[in-house]
From TrEMBL:
This is Alkene reductase. CDD domains: OYE_like_FMN. Keywords: Oxidoreductase. It comes from Leptolyngbya sp. NK1-12. GO terms for molecular function: FMN binding; oxidoreductase activity, acting on the CH-CH group of donors, NAD or NADP as acceptor.
Length: 363
């Protein structure tokens, strides 16, 4: 099958992409206890610079935002310096890289929090499940609802992280508003039970996302900003919404006003382990949103080509295939076989399953 669309260039905001193949954000937990990007991560990202665009692993915007062991941050000078080495390495290889901004909200645990405090969220509703903390596997606890006077400070954390990302040499940022993390916890009424200006109606539940978006755009430039959404009730992080079609139609239309670089929608295809049983909402978002749309979740080269050809999306995000195939773009180009991933090493430590997948042999 010809992959003419996947290998066509595209201008995405201020960033020129040579192909439509996006490396999806992939949390790997290799940043160490200090959460400082390191040489392991530098080699990992540089090897994948053939992607049209790399979106980094989710990166915490503050100490309060942490909720995953040994994930990287962007809130200290040392972290900025660590990321700067990575962006320079990717750029030397001709790549483009944006930083995903992350606040985990209730998907955290006191073991991650400064002073052992409760994590924060829209409402005091716990995730039904377990957190893998630095001190072991523990049940999630009910979070503390953010107070009205605290919300501007959290919005500012996103803006500050954006300026730090710019200092670190990134080509842009992606606001993580998906997969049951803090912004998603405000968006979806399965978690957001507030009765103030940030709860109840869809407009109120979307208010936090829109305030964060405005702050991030003002901290840099709209053509350097993307947003990630996950509309389906796929259950990850125990998330639900009573009317995803209405919620995400409103959100997509509201985001048009910002003239963003892209909108990134995670809604896995049937057969994916996180595929939802209800309707697909990506077509609704595609109709409502005027800009560049990224889709991901279970696509191979042929499905990605078809999605672009059919007008369903402009860019295709690949996650697990990039874990096992640093040279995924070249393999797609040549129609070469793909390495099989080893899920037992996805969130391990060290080089195994991180830097040891073989590249195509050079003739």
């Amino acid at each position: 099958m010809s992959l003419e669309q996947l290998f066509s260039p595209l201008q995405v905001g201020a960033i020129h992409l040579p192909n439509r193949i996006v490396m999806a954000p992939l949390t790997r937990g290799r940043a160490g206890a200090e959460r400082i990007p390191n040489d392991l991560m530098l080699e990992y990202y540089a090897l994948r610079a053939g992607a049209g665009l790399i979106i980094t692993e989710a990166t915490q915007i503050s100490e309060q935002a942490a909720g995953w062991d040994q994930s990287p941050g962007i809130h200290t000078d040392a972290q900025v310096q660590g990321w700067q080495k990575i962006t320079e390495a990717v750029h030397r290889q001709g790549g483009r890289i944006v930083l995903q901004l992350w606040h985990t909200g209730r998907a955290s645990h006191p073991d991650f929090q400064p002073g052992g405090e409760l994590p924060v969220s829209a409402s005091a509703i716990a995730i039904n499940g377990y957190s893998h903390t630095p001190k072991g596997k523990k049940p999630y606890l009910a979070p503390r609802p953010l107070q009205l006077d605290e919300i501007p400070g959290v919005v500012q954390q996103y803006a500050t992280a954006t300026r730090r990302a710019q200092d670190a040499g990134f080509d842009g940022v992606e606001i993580h508003a998906a997969n049951g993390y803090l912004i998603d916890q405000f968006l979806k009424d399965g978690v957001n039970q507030r009765t103030d200006a940030y709860g109840g109606s869809i407009a109120n539940r979307a208010r936090f996302l829109l305030e964060v978006t405005e702050a991030v755009v003002n901290a840099w430039s709209s053509d350097r900003v993307g947003i990630k959404l996950s509309p389906s009730n796929h259950g990850y992080n125990d998330m639900r919404d009573s009317d995803p079609k209405a919620t995400f139609t409103y959100v997509a239309e509201a985001l048009n006003a910002f003239n963003l670089a892209f909108l990134d929608v995670f809604e896995p295809l049937p057969g994916h382990e996180l595929a939802a049983e209800d309707d697909r909402y990506t077509p609704v978002i595609r109709e409502a949103y005027n800009g560049v749309l990224v889709v991901g979740g279970g696509y191979d080269a042929e499905l990605g080509e078809a999605a672009i050809s059919n007008g369903e999306a402009d860019l295709i995000a690949y996650g697990v295939p990039f874990i096992a195939n640093p040279d995924l773009v070249e393999r797609f180009r040549l129609g070469a076989a793909l390495n099989s991933p080893d899920p037992t090493t996805f969130h391990a430590r060290g080089e195994k399953g991180y830097l040891d997948y073989p590249l195509l042999a050079k003739v």
